[in-house]
């Protein structure tokens, strides 16, 4: 029996693949390499190159590899870009999830861990985000993730009396950073860590967008969580589903405290040894002052914890990025 990781050649998915293997759960990967890298898939792990929009391919992969559950990571993950490309976002994230569920139903695969997002909350005006907070996504990306959660919920209701009723949980996470393996690094053109790393590698000065927020140092505060901790939570969720243990419909993988952009910049200079003063640019529209979640439910059920300091998060990411030169 194996677990299929959709998007398993991507930054987060590749870490989940390794965490599954380490836990004794054989992984299988399907990825169209639109943002992933074949080199991120470990030797010996079955790799199917193709799109989750190809229903026949997904079902065939499930059957041929005796898959008992799916960790669904594949998707279009750029919230800002989704505003300009809503149709593409919905195709990849909503239709893609629907097709995965349809293929699972046909193949009799009853377990799904869904990589959701804190984007389902939009810009909440609260100190700490909890799972029961109203969902008000502010982008097509956030909307697509929320619809994905609805699809899981509705399919679980529809199959409750079937031979293979769907059991599922969704993991909502925030800013995933660092590296748990020097051969894997974040290659996103939109995330803070790779943007800063690329600037430093190229001799440019990193940029802060806005320093007049209502926070202690004027820069916005976010949850930054290490990718290895994220991967570990996915594996525990898969194990609980496989064991028939109870799970919540959704969990926040948050830090409770958060870090400001300036704190990240200070850590970047400290860890890399490259002294720089960030440029200050205008705020980006729609950026809230603070979004931080508790992670209490995940700590209770998924052994969730923030096991890395900010310096360790930066160091692991920087070492992986510089090793790729």
TrEMBL record:
<dbReference type="Pfam" id="PF01370">
    <property type="entry name" value="Epimerase"/>
</dbReference>
<protein>
    <recommendedName>
        <fullName>UDP-glucose 4-epimerase</fullName>
        <ecNumber>5.1.3.2</ecNumber>
    </recommendedName>
</protein>
<dbReference type="InterPro" id="IPR036291">
    <property type="entry name" value="NAD(P)-bd_dom_sf"/>
</dbReference>
<comment type="similarity">
    <text>Belongs to the NAD(P)-dependent epimerase/dehydratase family.</text>
</comment>
<dbReference type="InterPro" id="IPR001509">
    <property type="entry name" value="Epimerase_deHydtase"/>
</dbReference>
<keyword id="KW-0520">NAD</keyword>
<dbReference type="InterPro" id="IPR005886">
    <property type="entry name" value="UDP_G4E"/>
</dbReference>
<keyword id="KW-0413">Isomerase</keyword>
<keyword id="KW-0119">Carbohydrate metabolism</keyword>
<comment type="pathway">
    <text>Carbohydrate metabolism; galactose metabolism.</text>
</comment>
<feature type="domain" description="NAD-dependent epimerase/dehydratase">
    <location>
        <begin position="3"/>
        <end position="254"/>
    </location>
</feature>
